[in-house]
Amino acid sequence: MSEEKVLTARLYDIQGFSVQDGPGIRTTAFLKGCPLHCPWCHSPESQAYYPQLSYIDMRCLGVEACDSRCIKACPHNAIELGGERLDAKTNEMLQTVHVKRDLCDNCFKCSEVCYPDALYRCGDDYTVDQLVARLLQDRRFFKRGGGVTISGGECLTQPAFVLEVLKRLKDEGINTAVDTTGFCKWEIIESIMPYTDLFLYDLKHMDSEKHKAVTGVPNEIILDNCRKIAENGGKMQIRIPVIPMFNDDEENIRKTAEFCVPLGDAVTVIQLLPYHNLGVTKYLRISDKPVMEATPPTDEFMEKLKAIMEEYGLPVTIH
Question: β-pairing, 52-55 with 119-122?
Answer without folding.
Answer: antiparallel
